[in-house]
Amino acid sequence: MMLLTSLDNPPLRRSQAKHRPAGAGRHAMRAATLLLLAGALATPPALAPFAFAPLAGAQESGRRNPTVIRDAEIENLLRDYMRPIWKAAGLTQQNLRVVIISDPSFNAFVMDGKRIFVNTGALASSETPNEIIGVLAHETGHIAGGHLARMRQEMENAQTMAIIGTLLAAGGVAAGAAGGANMGGAAAALAGPQEIARRSVLSYARAQEQAADRSAISYLAATKQSPVGMLKTFERMQNDQIFISQRVDPYVLSHPMARERVAALEDLVAKSPYRDIKDSPELQARHEMMRAKLVGFSMPPDAVARRYPPSNTSLPARYARAISAYRYGAVPDAIRQIDALIAVQPNNPYFHELKGQALLEAGRPREAIAPLRRAEQLSGGAPLIRTLLGQALVAANDKSSVDDAVRELTFGVQREPESAAAWRFLAQAYGQKGDLPNADLASAQSALLSGDVQLARELAARARQTFAYGSPGWLKADDIVNVKPPKKKPGRPTP
Ligand SMILES: [Zn+2]
């Protein structure tokens, strides 16, 4: 399943909203500060400064709201890529995860100590697992090095500096210059305080980038993997930077950041005893399937056909065409293509999942159930697949399977508590069962996650009346009734 969700409405956490209002407020303010400065640094929207992409690339991709992609197959592959790296970095206890952003530009970044974000563009353009592992190892280096916390401190210092500067310059020269982002090196002395602050943060960031590079190289060495993919990615990045140089702040351009980093990396790569090690054929094959899936899901049929023409009969090519057929073509044709894939790899859970998804979305939920059950078994109970199965069971609206639906979806929301859609399907399942308090409660959760606090509180209040006082359901409903509507966040970049 390839599921798109918007990052724009970060889910409210009940515990935060109810039990730690002061702390949550402080956190929100810090986040807003970070956003403002991150904006000044031309990093991607709503994100922290440790991006892998060239600054200009980030500028290019603009201020759109990032959309998260959920997909069991790709997430599983990225976990397999990162497990050894995270172990080498001493981060096995941190419960890290890679979050996939739907964006064709090349980027990877971190914004907290728990998640590494990577664009679909980076995944699709990496020719080998090694290339993307190198990129994500670099991001891991930022987390392991605690760079985010220190960068936040640095930004706060910089902001203080900027504020003091603005106050000092109140009737003076700097006021007009403060907004000038296009000042070149020689004009630095005349730059406004915000510009000076910005550059101080930038120089700090450069040191952290090189530290993250060195960490990445050490993780790759510890796991006996080649650093060549990482170098290759940097070289490509450097070329991108030259290519789009026209639209970049000259100060950013005059930084030979990528060049320095590439030179330093070349040195380290030459010394690596693992530089000629290739990815395992098994991992390379899964990588090709991931790329095909991304192409099939994100590109129009003619682009898919150009990338994977009919003459290409490889499994990835057939996968991309089958996905494209399901998204744009006739259902019977898509099912025929998917069945042909299943004939080649009967135990590939994601082929069965795709078949189930195609049937479900074609309005044939009863037929979707069997392939989804198979996908669930073969995937070892992947939460996203169990949720999809639950969705099919609800859509089938069959009295005999309603308990099944509740079970699958309950598991789904336990493992993926931030999925508004899963809560909505669970509400439907409870509704079919005639369990109205639990249906209201699940609907309230869904409304809360979708940002409709008012509706969430109304539904939760109705559920609370029916549950026994103090029961688990009553407590959950009570929590939601007491959620405070979120305050408008200042400084968020608008789309
Ligand atoms: Zn970095």
UniProtKB/TrEMBL annotation:
<dbReference type="Pfam" id="PF01435">
    <property type="entry name" value="Peptidase_M48"/>
</dbReference>
<dbReference type="InterPro" id="IPR051156">
    <property type="entry name" value="Mito/Outer_Membr_Metalloprot"/>
</dbReference>
<keyword id="KW-0862">Zinc</keyword>
<keyword id="KW-0645">Protease</keyword>
<protein>
    <submittedName>
        <fullName>M48 family metalloprotease</fullName>
        <ecNumber>3.4.24.-</ecNumber>
    </submittedName>
</protein>
<feature type="region of interest" description="Disordered">
    <location>
        <begin position="1"/>
        <end position="24"/>
    </location>
</feature>
<dbReference type="Pfam" id="PF13432">
    <property type="entry name" value="TPR_16"/>
</dbReference>
<dbReference type="GO" id="GO:0008237">
    <property type="term" value="F:metallopeptidase activity"/>
</dbReference>
<dbReference type="InterPro" id="IPR001915">
    <property type="entry name" value="Peptidase_M48"/>
</dbReference>
<keyword id="KW-0482">Metalloprotease</keyword>
<dbReference type="InterPro" id="IPR011990">
    <property type="entry name" value="TPR-like_helical_dom_sf"/>
</dbReference>
<keyword id="KW-0378">Hydrolase</keyword>
<feature type="domain" description="Peptidase M48">
    <location>
        <begin position="77"/>
        <end position="267"/>
    </location>
</feature>
<keyword id="KW-0479">Metal-binding</keyword>
